[in-house]
Specification:
The chain has about 850 residues and is of the alpha+beta class. About 45% of the residues lie in helices and about 20% in strands. It is elongated.
Length: about 850
Amino acid sequence: MNTVSLNSQTLSAETFTRRIIFPMASIVVVAIAVVLGFVLVSASGQNKLEVEASTKLATTALQVKAREVARNLRDYAVWEDVYKNLHDTVNAEWAATDGNVGANIYEGLGYEMAFAINPSGKTVYAVVHGTPQKVDALQVMPHGLKDLLHVASIQTDPVTSIIKSGEDVFIVAATGILPPSIERSTVRPRDLSMLVFAKKLDQKFLDRIGRDYLLDGLAISPTKPTDAEASIPLLTQDRVYLGSITWFPAKPGYQLLRFILPPLAVALVILAAFSMLVVRNARRSTRALEESARTVEAYAQTLKESESRFKDVAEASSDWIWESDNVLRLVYFSTRFTEVTGVAAASVLGKTLEQFFSSDADTDGWRRLIEETNERTSFRDLRCCYRDAGGQTRICRLAGRPITGASGEFLGFRGTATDITEEVKAQERATHLAHHDALTGLPNRVLFRERLNIALAANAAETSRVSIICLDLDHFKEINDTLGHGAGDILLQQLSSRLLACVRASDTVARLGGDEFAIIQVGVNQPLESEQLSRRLIEVVRAPFQLDGQDLHIGVSVGIAVADTRDNDPERLLKNADIALYRAKQAGRATYRVFEAQMDVELQARKALEYDLRQAVLKNELEVHYQPLIDLEARAVAAVEALVRWRHPTRGLVSPAEFIPLAEETGLIVAIGEWVLETACLQALEWPQLRVAVNLSPVQFRGRDLVDSVKGVLVRTGLDPARLELEITESVLINDATAALEILNGLKSLGVRIAMDDFGTGYSSLGYLNSFPFDKIKIDRSFIGDMSSKDKSGAIVKSVISLGQSLNMVTTAEGVETIEQATFLTKEGCDQLQGFYFSKPITATELTAFIDRWEGSDILSIVAA
């Protein structure tokens, strides 16, 4: 231990000036510079915050106007009269009448343009600046409107976008014309007529927004602004830049400077005067410091004597040793004290135990320490707190025993202290990790269950106040597969922050695992509050996520379950929320559903059907039926299409429309598809003159082993690859065109033929024909059923047949049921016909008999088998 010696030489005036006055003056100057710098930085920060606030306000204003256009559009789109006069029939005279869809759209609502577009994409009615005109909406807005119409046709609510027409920018909303009397699920998107409203972003419109939202100088810039103080970009749905809205934000920072600088100057003058007073008093205090130094030297001598008694023990111990006098002033520390705490022993010596140690609230060790030192008894394993050299609170474990003199008088305490801070933190970390998710920091499933039990118990009298909201990200697996799990982890962390920002402090947001999250909400008005929160969560998650400089878009499906006073079992409540979540996914994702008892019944029925289907695969209850394809030129059966059927032991034949989607959802379609393929290939060996066609599910394309699987079937069965025809739908290419085309090229390299099934039902079929050389196109049965030589379906069929001929592809018409249809297709040059007019799907034995009795010379006289 170091001792302190007193320098008897007093400080001279020159030494005092050099050591005291100059440092004090420097401190004052630095303080003034720091304060001025802080004020300027604060002013600049205030200006930046104002820009950020006004940007959020401007963005909100634009979104509010867009939602206003969507709401107005919806009011017209669900109107029975609009449906009758702009969809069933086109009555332009009725539409132009003021109060319908005429001048009032412009004069009353302020919309410059409104269009009604029929299912084929033709503009059947248009009103521009309140005047009905004959214009084509897709020519008025050639960029963006078509995509908006497609998105709106598959959405229940109106869809809005920013679209440019000429030099003008519009807020455009589109939705399907459908009255409340017609169930939305019964109408196919392609059969909807669309209603479109367009609001021009002109200066008058911006001035009104500026007045409503206190934004000064709102204007539209057609190019990206370089000198604007504040701006927001105008982007289309596919992120195409159309211009920017700029304005002049307020500058509160400059107002702050005018308010602060005068009193600050006065304060600095006062500080200078105060500093002079301090220097003068410091001179008088020099003599007092000399006296204090003598006192410290006396204590140091005492410590030196004490140290000689404990030095050997103190140096050998891993803890630090302390000693106090009879009034509990600390008079000794071993050298380990400074090594552990970083605090100089001299700065603590002379303080009492109460001045250095403090209470540990977890164990109340401080109270026990005071009691036992007052009683002058030994103590051990008492937890107390102290502050280290950095001002951080640390935890130690104390032990001590009283010291007595030769005559038994009490001299103080002597003991040891062990720093256990890291041990306590490790225990806290372990406890936290046991109850929280390591990636997001949210409560995990264990803590979620504990808080759910607490919530149910606390609201036992009104259990219906408690609800669980289960969330599951839509298509999250695709992000992990394409960008890696690291990107997925970052997205989950960003998502957690968004979820926490949407809930109240009393709610619990937990990550149950993977991309599954759950929220416990306690509300007075349930399920209304949970529905409101769910809508907010869906909107928040829909906003793009930023990962490595690119925008990622995902959705979230939400299931809600409200506790029941008759059954407040937490396990059942969570299960009900999961069932509601499943129904939300079935409804098309990016939506929510509230649990109803009927959902559980339907889910159990679905599980029973899924179980039966798995048993059917194991027990060989599946069958393959075959439908012939008639070649018109050869006047013979040219091929057969293999179709799977399920003969249930009690329900009989189950419709493919009922079990195929279930097989795709559960993944059973992969095993079923390979079994159908192998069965059909083996059967084709008995019909050496025929090709066999097999459908491939989009689910089979998600695995990278499809090509190897087909190759293995061909090797095992020995079928010539040229006799195998694989049919795919456009949805295979829409999900992941690049991967799908790679697989199709691999299949093509095996020598098999590729056919596009249901041609014409997708919006980009022609593009896929151009990017991949299909061998055949199959005209969808929906066109054949409505076909005549004069209607639109007939024209489409003619065009597809002509397209197939020009591309040197075989054309097959599906769903031929009448002699008139067969005659029409024969005259138009279709290559193959397939349908009930010739034969329904039948067993292999029945098809063999059908081939034997076939008379190719009189194709159109064949009667369906």
